[in-house]
Specification:
Elements lengths: L1 E2 L6 E7 L1 H5 L5 H9 L4 E9 L9 E8 L18 E3 L25 E3 L4 E6 L5 E2 L4 E2 L2 H26 L22 H11 L15 E5 L2 H4 L8 H12 L1
Amino acid sequence: MLLNCPDVCQYGVIRMDPVAMVEHFGDLETTSRARALVPKTYLVYLDIALDLPFPTSAWFRFQVCPIAPTLRPPIPEDGITSDMAIPIYPNTHHPCGRPPVQTKTPFPFANCYHWYENKATVRLRRMEDQYDDCNAVQITSMQHVKIVRHFENDLQRARAFHSEEASPLAGTGGVHSSSPSTTTPALNLETSFDGLLGMDIFGLAHDKTAEFLPLVDLWFELDEHLTANTIPTPLDFYEEVETIVE
């Protein structure tokens, strides 16, 4: 299907354009440094569309999940373990036997994972023509929900870890209650409407921070841009973004 803006629940490959991200600042030194960078091509999952696809938009903000070629590196101090990941079929390897994500059409790599706590907001640059997702590897909404549920379980595990770490503070004589308030605040329609406007649910407000988000090009032909051995780690992606923003 030809689209002005990509759809969610699809896998794609992205590559940043450092020069386009900084040249409008008019700083020759910064632009020169950007030209010296060699961005990698990353495998991602299109998770959430953050903008309405207006025909005049030069780019669309998306929340994406960089896909990894290995299990997640543990972060012991945060209670994050290597099994907080989900394989993508035909990869079936997981330390705890977590079932893989099943795609509608065959996924071309046998070593890939979704990682817990691994999301980034990017600007997908509008293509000169249209996005053709006929060859895109997609998942169903039910598979997306399964991803969310697995990571909700991981979140609970991480929270339990922090609760155990904080447990020596308990019993110091203070009173703590986790019970929610039973008082329902009165609804102020004017305040609620102002709050909805402030949320910018239609993406109409000018976001002054958007120009610092990674500007990327997107393609759906995964195996034309990557092989199983050349998929970079998401850690490289975050390091690359930090380098460009600095």
